[in-house]
Design a protein that fits this description.
Layout lengths: L4 H10 L11 E4 L9 H11 L7 H14 L1 H5 L5 H15 L6 H15 L6 H9 L3 E6 L3 H10 L11 E3 H4 L6 H11 L7 E4 L2 H11 L2 E5 L12 E3 L2 H10 L1
Parallel strand pairs: 1-2, 1-4, 2-3, 4-5, 5-6
Helix pairs in contact: 2-6, 3-5, 5-6, 10-11
């Protein structure tokens, strides 16, 4: 039977409602520092290797991450390995704070960091939400494909997310904040990008990238880092994030 354009609009709108009458949201999540606390493996390693270091641990962690970000493109392009990246960032962070830390210790630090990455856990409020929600879900995370999917497997993401709705920058060949990363995901899912929220921790990669691509944005600012006007909403804990999603 022929459908008018008005009929199609009504049908599309109805598809956004679930049986209970609640609005069905479309939410795309980052992985690291969004689904779990990325600092946990780092802090466990610091307890082992530098338990008595006198630094602001939050700032030290932020600098550790920044050094990793500086060489992310080399990692994305396969010029360096995951291990080389991890060794580099702990060496550079220690160097900045005048902490003596040998190369062999940096290698050990990275080895233990990888061990703890295999024991990460998703935040409990998110597990409860994903278990019971009927919203449309997806993931876009920056990083080498196999490495990111290892973490997603450890987090049991595929218990809640369709495999066809999980994307990595390594898989796509383009990384956030490039708008093409977000657009490629939407094309693969045959979705309208303007109907989706993006939930992430990084203001530049996640909020700026998603907003420029046409998405609505939720900044999960777990570590109270920089935010700004491209974040439509800001939350600071997994509990607050889930509460916002449910009531919005």
């Amino acid at each position: 039977m022929f459908k008018s354009s008005e009929d199609s609009v009504v049908e599309s709108s109805l598809l956004c409602y679930i049986s209970s009458g609640d609005y069905m949201k479309k939410l795309m999540f980052d992985c690291d520092d969004t689904l779990y606390d990325l600092s946990w493996p780092f802090r466990k390693c610091m307890e082992e290797f530098l338990p008595n270091v006198d630094v602001d641990m939050n700032q030290f962690y932020a600098d550790y991450r920044k050094f990793g970000d500086m060489i992310f493109d080399d990692l994305q392009q396969g010029k360096i390995t995951i291990d080389e990246s991890g060794i580099y960032r702990i060496e550079k962070a220690c160097e900045k704070y005048d902490i003596e830390f040998s190369h062999s210790k940096a290698v050990e630090f990275q080895s233990r960091y990888k061990y703890y990455q295999h024991h990460i856990e998703m935040d409990a409020p998110l597990i409860d939400y994903f278990t019971n929600c009927e919203d449309e879900l997806a993931i876009l995370t920056n990083g080498e494909d196999a490495h990111q999917r290892m973490k997603l497997e450890v987090l049991h993401v595929f218990d809640y997310f369709k495999a066809s709705h999980v994307f990595t920058s390594g898989q796509l060949g383009v990384a956030k904040p490039d708008v093409n990363a977000f657009q490629k995901c939407m094309e693969a899912m045959h979705e309208d990008i303007h109907e989706w929220y993006y939930v992430g921790d990084n203001y530049i990669n996640d909020m700026q990238g998603a907003k420029n691509a046409g998405m609505k944005t939720i900044h999960f600012n777990r570590h109270h880092q920089v935010s700004g006007p491209l974040a439509d909403h800001v939350v600071y804990s997994a509990k607050e994030l889930v509460e916002f999603i449910k009531k919005d």
